[in-house]
Design goal:
transmembrane helix, globular, Brnchd-chn_aa_trnsp_permease, 77% helix, transport, Inner membrane protein YgaZ, mainly alpha, transmembrane
């Protein structure tokens, strides 16, 4: 239940995203069944939205598949980060929780898993966030399919999407490495926003990770440690 409670504050930012996805699919002429089938298959809001846009523009199917895969490359980094903590689980656990991996679940769990504070209940906490997020997304898209079109544009639902990701980002900035990764990744994302096939997202992710690693390595280098000790020794 801890994972479910941790995810609850993020739900208001997920619902508008799902509503917009459902509305967009129906407006393109997709049936409710096809829309929900796509939602179950993709389970990636950003990739699904881009795929819908490319379908609307008549892009070749192979290009759509490749674009979706590129956008979801970040999940490889997420999986590599979580694997040391969850790899010992049996397949009846690893397969479903791998499918349900999301930005929200990763952001909520990665720091707690790294610190070891969850102990032997770590996989239950992760599963709570993952299942809750999956259900929220599916229900939100379904609501968008059937009632989203009646929501007035003055509600500006799209504005809630970046706010939900900011809510994930800010609590995770706990040291210089995470701050550097956020600043560099955000800057690259802005500068690379017009890159084809949404490669800006992947480039920003990789740039942020590299920046964080470099800053962390610099902090742990012998020279930096020695300088820090000298400064502390000179302090009154």
């Amino acid at each position: 239940m801890g994972g479910v409670r941790a995810l609850l504050p993020l739900i208001p930012g997920v619902i508008p995203f799902g509503l917009l996805t459902g509305v967009m699919a129906i407006n393109m002429g997709m049936s409710p069944g096809t829309t929900m089938g796509m939602t179950l298959l993709f389970y990636s809001g950003s990739a699904q939205m881009v795929a819908l846009q490319l379908l609307h523009n008549g892009v070749l199917p192979m290009a759509i598949v490749v674009t979706a895969l590129v956008i979801n490359l970040r999940f490889i980094m997420y999986s590599a980060s979580l694997a040391p903590h969850l790899h010992a689980l049996p397949r009846r656990w690893t397969w479903p929780v791998s499918y349900m991996l999301s930005d929200q679940s990763y952001a909520l769990c990665t720091l707690k898993l790294s610190s070891g504070e969850l102990g032997r209940f770590a996989h239950h906490y992760y599963a709570g966030t993952a299942v809750s997020m999956w259900l929220c997304w599916q229900v939100s898209v379904l609501a968008g399919v059937y009632v989203g079109a009646s929501i007035p544009e003055t509600w500006s639902l799209g504005f809630a999407i970046p706010l939900s990701f900011l809510a994930l980002l800010v609590p995770g900035i706990r040291n210089a490495a995470s701050l550097g990764a956020a600043v560099v990744g955000g800057a690259i994302a802005v500068l690379a926003v017009n890159m084809p096939y949404n490669l800006g997202l992947v480039t920003a992710s990789i740039g942020g990770v590299v920046a964080g690693l470099l800053i962390e390595s610099a902090r742990k280098s012998p020279l930096t440690t020695t300088l820090a000790r000298d400064i502390e020794g000179e302090a009154p």
